[in-house]
Amino acid sequence: MQHSVICIVCLIVMSSIVHAQNTEEILDNYRTRGLTFSRMVAAPAQKVGEMLVIEIYGRLQIPVRIIKMSGKRALVSARDGVVDGECQRIMRVQEVAPTLIRLSPHISQFEGTVFTKIPDMKVEGWDSIKDYKIGVREGVQYIEDATKGFRRVEIIHDDPTLFQFLNSDRVDLIINPRFNGLIHLKQLNLENVIRPISPPLATFRVYNYLHVKHRKLAPIIEDLLVKMYVSGELQELRERFQQEVIATTTPR
Questions:
Q1: DSSP helix/strand/coil, 117
Q2: What's the pLDDT score for residue 26?
Q3: What is the pTM (predicted TM-score) of this model?
Q4: Homologous superfamily in CATH for domain 111-203
């Protein structure tokens, strides 16, 4: 009996050593080659995601390069393995991009919010806005899904243009993450013209994604994410980076 226990303990210790050695071999490879992630251009919440991804992978001494693209191209490039992954996307992205591995837990979240110039507008779910002319950003999956079948939806390439369309009354309202929207209003000097409506249409968790060719790295990153999430460090970093983005935002 005692001999069996000793054998089991030895096997566990040997397994742990082998696992640690394998982990270091995998990390050494990525420390040399680095990783490239795509992200949406001109989106402040994406800047926060970029800062988080650089910090997270930096904890493992993995250098990260970020390429800014349109929303659709960022996803397609990650899905097709042109880049190594995407900084952050909602959970449902795997339905349209099954070659991407979602890393849990989530690194951030955002509130899908209506912005408008219409006084006293009330928003009570997606159906309450379906008869308005709506501006949405190209490549934002949750908005595309929710507004499917709506008769008057204008697809716009980037966030600044989205707000300019709203300001010039070419649309009645736009949908944007609240954090993004508040930054753009400050940049465009529209804080007294356009307002966000509460409550948000939806709140989404967003995750870092790796292409499946990096499946061996994925559990290593997830182990780190779990530790940072449980300790509260992930939230602290997110809040700090948001404040940094706000502090460096000036009217154009």
A1: coil
A2: 96
A3: 0.84
A4: Periplasmic binding protein-like II (3.40.190.10)
